[in-house]
Amino acid sequence: MAFREHHVLPAFLFLSMLVSATTTKANLSSTFYDKTCPKALSTIRTSIRAGISRERRMAASLIRLHFHDCFVKGCDGSILLNDTATNERDVIFNKNSARGYELIDNAKTEVEKICPGVVSCADILAVAARDSSVAVSGPSWTVKLGRRDSTTPYPDVALSDLPRFTESLPELIARFEHKGLSERDMVALSGSHSIGQAQCFTFRDRIYNGGDIDAGFASTRRRGCPVSSGDSKLAPLELVTPNQLDNNYFKNLLQKKGLLQSDQVLFSGGSTDSIVSEYSRNPSKFLSDFASAMVKMGDIEPLTGSAGQIRRICHAVN
């Protein structure tokens, strides 16, 4: 599963990562700003809702932006930085693809008006992802807070750690396990592909050369994605309810109608088939597991205490 909104270890290292995650999670709390900025969450929600009301597709963009932040050195807002010669925004998985930066900047501006220097950009992005889910009929969850912002981007880590839309199931499972996420977490998070759009170049090979694909579905998708041009042409990841976070994505996989290769491999005779089948039958289970997986993803390697900083503006260090 490559989280592309519009286009996505040795045992001892894995264990030490888990230990690190366990020790830092305790520093995050849903009540972190209750005394220092009690109106933070409502202010963020109002700003994000306004942005999504102008362009509904932004909900998918913000969920993906949070995912691409957390998978690169943890949920630290490093993807938001653009004040250095090299940054995460410009790596191949994000350039001309990752979106929503301006909505996070807008939310930060509003929060700074009421609580200057208090709320991190990393936390604003985490809250924005939750509010985006709610805006497209998805689940809500309690966001743990207290993350601080990175003072540097990590483009090399972005290149090495972000999933690819061409990857096999074992490769995807390994990537998620490296971040402390289970196969069930991975499949649930992949359900965010029930919203958003993909660029033609990300699925062209599948619709023209793929074997594990419904012929009628492939034919329909070819109309909007020429064989040798139109790389950036957009197509909805899910055709039935493209603006609603629901379980139609999983129903499509059962019919070999996954748009990206990294979607369809989730139901291709492997270990995740049973989870896909379960979610296709039980929408409430999918939504519950999606919320739980988002919380778990938000726990990946946060900066807390005196680490990092609280940026005054999200796209530049103080």
Automatic annotation (TrEMBL):
Active-site annotation: H68
Database matches in Pfam families: peroxidase (PF00141)
Keyword hit for Calcium: yes
Residues flagged as site, Transition state stabilizer: R64
GO biological process: hydrogen peroxide catabolic process; response to oxidative stress
Annotated compartments: Secreted
Catalytic activity: 2 a phenolic donor + H2O2 = 2 a phenolic radical donor + 2 H2O
Sequence ranges assigned to domain Plant heme peroxidase family profile in this UniProt record: 27-318
Gene Ontology molecular functions: heme binding; lactoperoxidase activity; metal ion binding
UniProt key word Metal-binding: yes
Binding, Ca(2+) 1: D69, V72, G74, D76, S78, E88
Cofactor details (free text): Binds 1 heme b (iron(II)-protoporphyrin IX) group per subunit.
Entry binding sites for Ca(2+) 2: T241, D246
Cofactor dependence: heme b; Ca(2+)
Cleaved signal peptide residues: 1-21
Binding-site residues for substrate, renumbered to this chain: P163
Chain residues that bind heme b: H193
Keywords carried by this UniProt record: Calcium, Disulfide bond, Heme, Hydrogen peroxide, Iron, Metal-binding, Oxidoreductase, Peroxidase, Secreted, Signal
Paired cysteines (S-S): C37-C115, C70-C75, C121-C314, C200-C225
EC number in record: 1.11.1.7
GO cellular component: extracellular region
Functional description taken from the UniProt entry: Removal of H(2)O(2), oxidation of toxic reductants, biosynthesis and degradation of lignin, suberization, auxin catabolism, response to environmental stresses such as wounding, pathogen attack and oxidative stress. These functions might be dependent on each isozyme/isoform in each plant tissue.
Family to which the UniProt record says this protein belongs: Belongs to the peroxidase family. Ascorbate peroxidase subfamily.
Protein known as: Peroxidase
Species assigned in the record: Ziziphus jujuba
Lineage, uppermost ranks: Eukaryota, Viridiplantae, Streptophyta, Embryophyta, Tracheophyta
Gene for this chain: LOC107435795
